[in-house]
Design brief:
Largest sheet: none
Oligomer: single chain
Helix content: over 70%
Order of helices and strands: HHHHHHHHHHHHHHHHHHHHHH
Number of strands: 0
Strand content: under 5%
Number of helices: 22
Distance between the termini: 64 Å
Number of domains: 3
Structural class: mainly alpha
Length: 528
């Protein structure tokens, strides 16, 4: 991994050198070639002792004195041209990416170097004019000025190309990420411990810059830029997690300036748990989430996905505190979506949350069990708000999670199954008929799966709960599940599947389950 990263950095450096030296060499070479060709044809070769190079490469003091003033005007014009073009382009880009782009541009070493070069050359020319006297001719200084002027003008095309390139979304966000990575990496070096506050602020600023870009993209309905910015926050945080264990204790004592509006208790908690960078990143994603929930649904999906990826990285690192806060942010996103009544956002969040829970089962069954309760809770909250589909969605995801927990042989599988079987307890059978039907279908699908595994004890738990339903309804729901032939829903959805679909093998298991537990004792079920 380290060797590959070093190779990529070396290739990037070579690419940058080529992008500058190749065009500069081309322009200089072309100009010199044209100059020599024309001089060759214009030169008087009939002279007794022709001295070609001495003639065309030298001049006299009188001509130079007249030309120096024009040199200064030329250099001032070039400087003015560059400042004008850069100011216009930078302002247009700042409107798209946020005003923090200006700070990033001014801190860029290439920009600083080129502007330093231009201003220095201009001042140098002014000093030469002052130095020229009747009895003093600064021959070498004037030749140096000629060389500097030629190089400055030859650098104009690659510099403008560089400016346009760094202001593209990909390069801009990558530059911010690289600055953040360098700051974190510097913080791991003992020699830099006295500068930890500086590096902390650079990392916090980098997160804010990307967040501002995402918010600006949303306000301008720039979908691609918004998604790139959201993904960049994830990449920056994943970079940080690679170095986290190498950082000193002082790094985790952040400034409260990075967190506006949170309580002192919460601030001290995240510092104590060494989570200030992660919390700031996720809080900024929450800010983007609130901003995009109605205007940019793809951003919601991206945030849900990235939260899961970060959580899975926390599991790999065995960072229990980060895992816990990932769960809290998933719940926060669900609450925001619920308050907005956004079914699609809940649909995508439940999916990513479910995948995260499946991974978490192997690492922390206790923490995973809490997620089962959260699915039930937010499903019921959705029903209370009159959105039956949210409970319907939660039911099918919970059923899949119980099946996964069974496959993973979780010891608390009975407790998880009981949570699942309590889903319909708060459902009004007359008012919320669609929600009830969805919950019961998901429970029947799970029952068929457990039956196919020969898990009689768990199947009986399901059967006992189903006795609260009428025999006619159970038959109707079975027939609906058996009649469904298409795995995909007839409309385009983010998941691309039909919740109620089961394959032919599971349909056979469902029929056998009914034959064994339902059809054999119809009188055991409710007549309501």
């Amino acid at each position: 991994m380290g060797a590959r990263k070093l190779l990529l950095e070396k290739e990037s450096l070579v690419s940058q050198i080529v992008s500058w030296f190749l065009p500069v060499g081309f322009f200089l070479g072309s100009a010199i070639l044209f100059y020599f060709l024309h001089a060759f044809w214009d030169f008087n070769w009939d002279q007794p002792q022709p001295r070609f190079f001495e003639t065309i490469l030298t001049t006299d003091a009188a001509h130079v004195n007249d030309a120096i003033g024009s040199f200064i005007e030329l250099l001032a014009a070039v400087l003015g041209l560059v400042i004008t073009v850069v100011a216009i382009v930078l302002q247009l880009a700042a409107q798209r990416y946020g005003n923090r782009l200006i700070d990033l541009f001014l801190e860029n070493k290439v920009n600083q170097t080129y502007f330093f070069f231009m201003v220095t050359t201009l001042l140098y020319a002014i000093f030469i004019i002052f130095a020229i006297k009747n009895d003093f001719y600064p021959n070498y200084a004037i030749r140096s000025l000629l060389a500097l002027t030629v190089v400055e003008i030859a650098c104009l095309p690659p510099y403008f190309l560089y400016v346009f390139k760094i202001l593209t979304p990909t390069n801009l966000l990558s530059s911010i990420q690289e600055n953040s990575r360098v700051s974190v990496r510097s913080g791991t070096d003992r020699k830099n411990y006295s500068n930890l506050k500086k590096y902390q602020r650079e990392v916090a600023t980098a997160i804010e810059q990307v967040t501002d870009t995402a918010l600006s993209a949303n306000s301008q309905m720039d979908r691609n830029l918004g998604l790139m910015a959201i993904n960049q926050i994830r990449e920056m945080l994943l970079d940080y997690l690679q170095y986290k264990k190498q950082l000193p204790r002082g790094w985790f004592l952040a400034s409260d300036d990075f967190f506006i509006g949170i309580s002192s208790e919460f601030f001290h908690e995240i510092c104590q748990k060494r989570l200030w960078v992660e919390t700031k990143s996720l809080m900024d994603m929450e800010l983007i989430y609130k901003s995009c929930i109605r205007n940019m649904p793809d951003a919601i999906s991206a945030i849900a996905y990235n939260t899961r990826v970060i959580g899975e990285e926390a599991i790999k690192d065995q960072d229990d505190d980060l895992v816990e806060i990932i769960v809290q942010f998933f719940n926060t996103f669900l609450r925001i979506s619920l308050n907005d009544g956004n079914q699609r956002a809940m649909f995508n969040l439940f999916y990513q949350y479910r995948l995260f829970a499946n991974t978490l089962m192997d690492y922390s069954p206790k923490q995973a069990a809490k997620i089962f309760f959260y699915f039930k809770y937010y499903g019921e909250q959705g029903l209370m708000k009159g959105i039956w589909f949210i409970l319907y969605n939660a039911a099918f995801d919970l059923g899949g999670m119980v099946a996964t927990a069974y496959d993973k042989k979780m010891k608390n599988i009975k407790d998880l199954l009981f949570i699942f079987m309590q889903l319909e307890d708060t459902v009004d059978k007359k008012k919320d008929w669609l929600a009830l039907m969805g919950v019961r279908k998901s429970q029947l699908i799970l029952a068929a799966y457990l039956f196919s595994k020969g898990e009689e004890t768990l199947v009986r738990i399901v059967v006992e709960d189903l006795k609260n339903e009428s025999f006619d309804n159970l038959i109707k729901w079975r027939d609906m599940l058996l009649s469904l032939k298409d795995k995909k829903f007839w409309e385009i959805t983010d998941r691309g599947i039909n919740f109620e679909y089961i394959d032919e093998e599971q349909k056979k298991s469902l029929e056998l389950f009914y034959k064994t537990y339902i059809l054999s004792q119809p009188q055991a079920f409710s007549t309501n």
